[in-house]
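Input.
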Amino acid sequence: MQEPFEAIVISRGDDKVQKVETRQLNLDDLMDGDVLLEVEATTINYKDGLAITGKAPVIRRWPMIPGIDCAATIVKSSHAGFTAGDSVILNGWGVGETHMGAFAKYARVSGDWLIKRPANISAMDAMAIGTAGYTSMLCVMALQRYGLTPASGPIVVSGANGGVGSVAISILSKLGYTVIASTGRPEEEDFLRSLGADDIIDRKELSEPGRPLGKERWAGGIDAVGSHTLANMLAMTQYGGAVAACGLAQGMDLPATVMPFILRGIALLGVDSVMAPKPLREEAWERLGHDLDVGKLHSLSKTIGFDEIVETAHALIDGKIRGRVVVDMKK
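Output.
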């Protein structure tokens, strides 16, 4: 256990210039925690891409091992809820931002952040789902708690080719919803329809400044984009509908008015995946084991090795990756 292992480390000097490199670390280099994990698989989320490229101030502690997700086996535990040999999933909790993350052979974390991996979800499939897919499930659950059913009308999904969007389409389709996919890549129409999208719209219909109130086009939406996209999605939601918002790829602003809320009685449902309580996480992962088509999950995923993480993170931020990326840490 004391042999060096590889990790991707992001550091920053006095000049504030970020450096990304692969280093040999020892267990003593890891941060405190009551559980030591051996990482089996991880994934590259949008947030990981931002951290590696430096396009946004994601990292708040230096140096940092990025990687906000992992499926892992417990090597050692002093946490009452886990023992050595348990298969677990970790999503969020500031890992990869303020606490060293999953782009390494080992990670030391708090057992309070972990859930046991459902028996019907493999480690690789868990990371094909990842935070993006888990967030998608939280969004679907939010819309269902609000009362939206397939009979309510279509659901629009922004960023349809991304991790959140692609998994959301798959889940909604399996549950019987009519899905409208918003994408900036019309050449991916066949792919999106294979996931279950019933209709495709150009993201320009949502991403440009729009009217305070538009024609009612959908019962609800799942948005990972923010800014004008979310504002327009709200403006075109039918009476009594709701939109679940979970991201800000276009921007953190919301250039909207109160008109959709007070004239149509719609709801904006905020969805947080990072600090979500454990019971909600367990419910989401349990449902993913049943409500997500594994065949579709495989069709929207690609697998890479550890040495390809940095290059793939840049491609993700450049919009060159569709669906999900799984990192096989034993590859």
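The chain has two domains: 5-117+300-328, 131-270.
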